[in-house]
Amino acid sequence: MPRIDRLDLSVVELRLTHGFTASTHSAKTLLHVVVRATTADGLTGWGEAPVPVDPYYLGETTDTVWSVTRDFLAPAVVGRPWDTVEEFTALYGRVKANNFARCGLEMAAWNLLAATSGRPLATLLGGAARTHVPSGVSVGMDSDHDRLCDTIAGYVGQGYQRVKVKIGPGADVNVLEAIRNRFPELPLMADANCAYTLEDLPRLRDLDAFGLMMIEQPLAWDDLLDHATLQKELATPLCLDESLTSAGRAREALALGSCRVVNIKPARLGGLLEAVRVHDACVAAGVPVWCGGMHDFGISRAANVTLSALPGFTLPGDNSGSDKYFGEDIVTPETRAVDGLIKVPAAAVPYEVKEDFLKAHTRRHVQVTA
User: Mandelate racemase/muconate lactonizing enzyme C-terminal domain spans which residues (predicted)?
Assistant: First the structure.
């Protein structure tokens, strides 16, 4: 029966190798909250909340995750015994929303459970017997279409199995046309990050011409009904991201016909437990899923890759190699994509956190004890 006697919370800063721009925000530097859970006998489980620094994705920020974890989540679990992750999350069940904060703590519990049981996370999650998962790549907005296509060509040359490009009003048809002219057969999808409304229906219909795998989250971040209306008007499948913050919301979207594909992000859903529930609902409905990313550091990236071993993840995810994002990651070995495939972590403790490197990049730290 694990019991966390000490939690160390750290705000860790890493700089992106290349800045990233979407319709709602841009980023050059990341500030994620890293959680270290330690038992009385010295076993450790690491977690990560890969939260944006600004409130433009789903409202949470580094500062909100820091305060909610420090003041509410951590005190609820320190010194309390639990057997399963379901029991662990029930300890802070009174905390509503704040899914990024919940995910960071829950991830530490999963990794601690793996360490104490000697069973890899893939086994604990019920993953399929897959040794590798397919990887796609996401590229940000770039008004220089030749440069954008050159960037895509580099990733295609590395073997990534699909490309996602960010779009928005005024940077959509022209962008996709340039890409398709150069890569007519490329598995391609477009991510709008909530940039459109139903008034843009004629423009969105134009995107059907580009043979896209899907259009991700074209309408409002909290909408299901308008997406259902839009999906009836388009041949291209819609994929929901921001709108799906729980398994309940996912079931509602499937019942309404709001999408034909689902993006599963543990951080958006409050952790791996809810991510598995969304996966299971989609499998039951015959809807394909893939795993999205949040510019994750190595802790969260490894968890996402492991989640992707579940059988419903039939489409390449966004969890590309760490080297695409950072000069150096906080764990070793780092996640790598080789010929478009990422190895699923097979050990109960699949990486080592580089604590000296972590300390050098820590901007805030607090310890919570029993």
Answer: 145-237
> For 100-143, what is each residue's pLDDT tens digit?
999 999 999 999 999 999 999 999 998 767 999 999 999 999 99
Among the listed residues 175, 186, 177, the one whose alpha carbon sits nearest the alpha carbon of residue 153? 186
How many CA atoms within 13 Å lie on the side-chain side of 123? 12
In this structure, the answer to whether residues 154 and 98 fall within a common structural domain is: no
Q: Does 287 lie in the same domain as 138? A: yes
Domain membership of residue 227 as a residue range: 124-343
Same domain, 322 and 359: no
Closest CA to 48 of 256, 366, 271, 277: 271
CA distance 100 to 279: 18
The number of distinct structural domains making up the chain is 2
Q: Which residues contact 2 (CB under 8 A, 6 or more apart)?
A: 39, 43, 81, 82, 83, 109, 112, 113, 116
- Cα distance between residue 63 and residue 32, in whole Å: 10
In a domain, 350, yes or no: no
Question: pTM here?
Answer: 0.96
pLDDT higher than threshold 90 for residue 256: yes
| Residue-level length of the chain | 370
Q: Residue 106: which of 82, 133, 126 has the closest Cα?
A: 82
Residues recognised as catalytic: 166, 265
Segment 1-21, tens digit of pLDDT: 789 999 999 999 999 998 766
